[in-house]
# Entry
Amino acid sequence: MYNWKGRFGVFGGQYVPETLMNALIELEEQYDKYKDDPDFRKELDYYLREYCGRETPLYFAQRLTEYLGGGKIYLKREDLNHTGAHKINNVLGQILLAKKMGKKRIIAETGAGQHGVATATVAAMFGLQCEIYMGAEDVERQALNVFRMKLLGAKVNAVHSGTSTLKDATNEAMRDWVANVENTFYVIGSVVGPHPYPTIVRDFQRIIGDEVKKQILQKENRLPDYIIACVGGGSNAMGIFYPFLEDKDVKLIGTEAAGMGLDTDRHAATLAKGKIGVLHGMMSYFLQDEDGQIDPVYSISAGLDYPGIGPEHAYLKDSGRAQYVSITDKEALDAFQLLSNLEGIIPALESSHAIAYAMKLCPATSKNNIIIVNLSGRGDKDVYTVAKVLGVNLDDKN
Amino acid sequence: MTRIERKFEILKANNQKALITYITAGDPDLEVTKQLVLEMERKGADIIELGIPYSDPVADGPVIQRAAQRALSKKIKIKNIMDMVREIRKETQIPLLYLLYFNCMLQYGIEKFISECSEAGIDGLIIPDLPYEESKDVKDIAARYNVNIISLIAPTSTGRIKKIAQDAKGFIYCVSSTGVTGTREQFKTNFYEFMEEIKKYSDTPKAIGFGISSPEQAKEIKNYCEGVIVGSAIVRIIEDYNQSSEVIDKIGEFVSQLKAALNR
# Structure
């Protein structure tokens, strides 16, 4: 039943207003037409290489490995992409597709702002009109990224409805799309949304895993034992997991945000605590009440602050192919500081959730084990948030 | 035959068009909702849609979103709404529909929900995020309980109209324009062409909704269809008067104007 007509087992589907159905059908047709088209691939590869900076290194984190005292830890450096995260891989793919489809206007939702920045960047580079929807709360905590998007020529719409975070930004982007479907391309930022988006985004992100496979074979002459990646919607994780799905000895581990703890109601641990439901066009796991009202979620990391998860992850969880664990804010903050100190790399708070699990796992592994952590983005955007938690006043001139 | 189907037959026999009104259940509270249903019927509404408030109503504009927020802030649950419908049914036989998002029904239990709808006196369901392709199971269950699942057709439904229209029960909800619910100054859709296309494939009554905000617009639109749906314009009055005892009268007055426009 895997990936049958937009379904991953029972998950996925197309739960959208009728107004959007033909747009989704057209997107699927156009994507099928271009995905293996040699000219399209060539153009995408060109931009990924020359504009984005691929391939990204697979870096052996020697000091972190020595500190933790277990298997060898490698970091896939998606933070070194242009705009500072893996998000741009997918945005380049989707916007090239939008161009082929003759769309002049690009919209996107964003949580932490990384997807919004990537979209604004690529839209600027191709000279397309761009509007970004962002929850009002995220606009506040990610002011730097908001300013970046504006510099790049995008209009940023702060969304005040609902919980004023990513979920509501997604609702608002969908409303915009319903109204302007004829000239607008909606660039979805994760492996979420109605079919064919989860597949499209995964295909554009699988470059992470494809590169990792090649790189680790070159460096170690064998596949890794563990791959760890954070999951909000789940695009960086899906991208690094996907090429390894058939390699059953490679353990795939997704880390979701436990916020203040799973015993509180302040978390975003969709797979640990969610139930099967429908939102944003897809059937997946969601944090919700018995009437289907979507629960407010929380994470220190705006990018993980989403009440659902991509349908393919829901399927990987139920089928047992991937394992999902929860990491608290505090554990992520400790990992954020540890990696900065030991390796001179300031990770995004999202990625810090993956590092945090490596810190737990690594001491229990043997020296022959290989652990790959997807460093999905860099932490510049999170420095203010972390400073605040640590009680440092960055505006203090002294 | 459901109450909806019977209502359209009676209206047709009398050469009249249906006035279909929408309010969000529980906005501002369930007692007012009940009174509004009865008042709207007295003032000429033929069919009433009750929105089940939802945290993430992606097909709705700001007016109905805010109504849902107001209702949810009162902790309104589906079971409370079902109880209110049972109360309403003691007093009126007006056709009633729920408008709800699929997740609400899914969590409640699809068969449990539909069987309770049938028992409480709900005649039809509008599920704006359940397109044709995803709707078969729900339609099969609804048919067993004599509840109509209302099909929606949009101006962007080119190539899909035939299969949706041929499958439609109760009435066909024809979306006036792209976009979410909310009032509109004018419509870009060519209603004549849009509705002629739908008529080719189905005799099921057709109602036009989304953005109809005034008696004048209702009067213009009625020429193309068997029913006119008015939602946001009513909900906006509820919002404006929600703390006031005048809310019932204001809604009644507006509904009379709409009905008069349809009968003109």
User: Anything to note?
Assistant: The first strand of chain B starts at residue 18 and ends at 24.
